[in-house]
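Supplementary notes for students who missed Thursday's class. We covered one full example, reproduced here. Read the sequence, then the structure, then the short commentary at the end.
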Amino acid sequence: MKNKKTLLGLAATLLLTTPAVSLMTNTNQAHAVESTTQDPVNEQGTLELNHNARVYNKKGKKLKKFQGKSSLLKKNKSVEYAKEVKPIADPSTKRYSFHDDKWNWFYLPYKTIKGKEYYSLGHGGYIKAVNVDKLNGNDLYTNYTTGVIKDVEHLNPPKKIPVFDNDAKQMSKYYNPGKEVIVSRYTTQSLLSNNGGGSDDNPEYYGIQNKKEYLWKNAVTVKSRQLLLPFSNFMNVATIRDAQVYRENGEPYISYPKSNEIILNDGSNQSSAIAPAKNIVIPKGVQEVTLKAVNLWLPSEQRFELCYQLRSLYPYNGYNESESGFVKASDTRYMYGPKLASKQ
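Structure (token representation):
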């Protein structure tokens, strides 16, 4: 079925191109804050397979032939589907979903047959949704999957996998390798905790379904071939253009070097070349974690502007990484996490 007009009316056309920020990692896939390079064919309404797939009828019985050809569809093949995608506010309510380049979420209605989800190909044919990797060129997500805890070396106590809470703090609880769990989300320490945002040491976690418990990603083998839904305790946004950073007084954020002196090996001082001041601008397409929304008075524009406080300016200011700043809400788009609203 052709539904190009439906998708183009819903999907975004704004592309993100950040090379620096990794967002999702699941199984052997890495997902960054960037646009999906879409094949024009995929815009017509197609499914891309991640595995060889058979075509079934509406009762879940394998077909020997489908439209006069073998019903075995090969991995990486693109096939047209029969339904129309629909927008959803909360992707966790659907077994499978995907987002466009503006992080608007959609799902393709599926049919459940004997406890398994199937996408309709039309003409009485269905394929298992678990065998679909991309929908219209967009990565397909799942809201839960089975995981098996595996052994991790150098643990104390040995052969015990620690459990972390919703703030990325280790609990007194442990799981044994071999235990089967249901995981429903992917996150990192910096997305859970307000400590250490911007640190290079940022462990990844899978969240256990219906619990505020998390396990190291590298301690769980997941069975799904789709990405798990992202989770954060903070609102995550992405810049839609190069975004000027402002201080709390509404002035553009200018970062100055801490010192123009260096200490030599013999203990003496020597003046160094004074580093230039830096006007802090966050490039288009970068994901940022935000802490609060404020109506900031911008003297240069003589008006109030809704702005988001950034948790960290790492690595943009270069001179004082502990400081934060603000960007205009209009220079960003919402990605996921609890939405912020100004209290002023």
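Commentary. The chain is about 5% helix and 45% strand. The CA atoms of residues 11 and 104 lie 7 Å apart. If anything here is unclear, bring it to office hours.
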